[in-house]
Design brief:
419 residues, alpha+beta, Beta Polymerase, domain 2, seven-stranded mixed sheet, 23 helices, 11 strands, elongated
Length: 419
């Protein structure tokens, strides 16, 4: 089947109309337009989804703006890199001006200059991402493959384009293990040797960029396999010694797909630091510039690990477990449930699945109507009623009312002592 036919089969009606409008606009402007990179790779591999990444031999920002007006879509531009995106309901198109890149020093963001399509493909990371499919003009449908990407895709091989690739941008080390794990490709022997040689260049990359690579791994469908490949090559240790992905961590990472996607980044970071010392955790958080949400999740996770024995002992009394778990962020509890073992892990799972949703049958107004004065005593009564329901000590509203009658004097005495 021709690649254009494969592409057409994967497009929704909205995307097909948007791409047709883009092709027409490029032809009117006399500009070359090609589908590039991972999109072409995924067509060759016959995967179910293809992102529409377009290279324009001309002005990508002006073309995207024209398409955006035609589609009445939102256009976001990035003039420094000559790129733009067009977004609308059901439409997602990414445009880039064909360009070449140079690096002033390892790890620096590239200096970009307009160039032809061949130069644009030559700047890319791996041969399988250095192909283009012509979408406009007389060469429409032609595959441009100057670096043997089709051959490597067929043989399931990941290969860099040149020997300094990982030095120019060491985040490509993370991309290598991510693509290899996702696609189940082997890393070419020479590429593997270069990757191991250049691990020290990870030190040239900012913490934020490295953290984002880990965030991308967290939402992959096979995170555990990617971590296995990364750990086996020393990638995580080279990033920071506190990061570990041994068998226990990889087993835990295998459960990330059960979590909400928005929680997986923080949960993966908790898993990767799970064997580190407190000092190591602090250092890793600083090196990787954890976000506030991620730092809170890790802090909660570390606290739960310190109380693991107490959680195991509390597994038969849900209210005790809830008191230990409820102050922690959801990502802390979810990652703890993946890393911990036995009764402690079971308590965390039960909390997430059901215990955290348990509330008294009586409302605050009911409690006041039963004679408890408004103020702190109402909150204390509601807490006691919730604990009793969690532990199976009350079975109905009548049970809770009876319990409340017995609590009133005790609550009033406690408040008087507190005052």
């Amino acid at each position: 089947m021709k690649l254009l036919d494969r592409l057409d089969m994967r497009l929704t009606d909205e995307m097909r109309r948007a791409l047709d409008a883009t092709v027409s606009a490029a032809e009117r402007r006399g500009e070359g337009l090609s589908l590039v990179g991972g999109a072409v790779r995924d067509l060759l591999l016959d995967t179910s989804h293809v992102d529409i990444d377009l290279v324009v031999e001309g002005d990508a920002i002006k073309l995207a703006s024209a398409v955006g007006r035609k589609l009445r879509a939102r256009v976001v531009t990035y003039p420094r890199f000559g790129t733009a995106s067009v977004r609308n309901d059901g439409v997602s198109l990414d445009f880039a001006t064909a360009r070449t890149e140079s690096y002033l020093r390892p790890g620096a963001l590239p200096t970009v200059r307009p160039a032809g399509l061949d130069a644009d493909l030559a700047r890319r990371d791996f041969t399988i991402n250095a192909m283009a499919l012509r979408l406009a003009g007389s060469q429409r449908g032609r595959l441009i493959d100057p670096h043997g990407g089709r051959r490597d895709a067929a043989s399931k091989t990941l290969r860099v384009l040149h020997d300094e690739s990982f030095q120019d941008d060491a985040t490509r080390i993370y991309r290598a293990v991510r693509y290899a794990g996702r696609l189940k490709f082997r890393v070419h022997r020479r590429t593997d040797a270069l990757l191991r040689r250049d691990l020290l260049f990870l030190d040239t990359i900012s913490g934020t960029r490295l953290r984002r690579e880990l965030e991308r791994i967290a939402v992959e469908p096979n995170t555990a396999e990617i971590l296995r490949r990364a750990d086996g090559r020393g990638v995580l240790e080279a990033t920071h010694p506190a990061l570990q992905a041994g068998p226990q961590q990889r087993s835990a990472a295998g459960g990330l797909t059960r979590l909400p996607e928005s929680h997986r980044d923080a949960a993966l970071l908790c898993i990767l630091i799970s064997a580190a010392s407190p000092a190591g955790v602090e250092q890793a958080m600083g090196r990787l510039s954890f976000t506030g949400r991620q730092a809170s999740a890790v802090g909660g996770f570390v606290a739960l690990r310190a109380h693991e024995r107490q959680l195991a002992d509390a597994a038969d009394r849900p209210s005790d477990a809830v008191r230990l778990l409820s102050p922690r962020p959801p990502e802390s509890i979810e990652s703890f449930a993946l890393v911990a073992e036995g009764r402690a892990a079971a308590a965390a799972r039960l909390y997430t699945a059901s215990w955290r949703h348990v509330r008294p049958r009586l409302t605050g107004n009911d409690v006041v109507a039963c004679g408890v004065p408004r103020g702190p005593q109402v909150g204390a009564a509601m807490d006691a009623l919730r604990s009793a329901r969690l532990d199976g000590e009350t079975k109905s509203r009548d049970d809770e009312i009876a319990m409340l009658n017995g609590l009133r004097e005790e609550l009033a005495t406690a408040e008087q002592r507190g005052g």
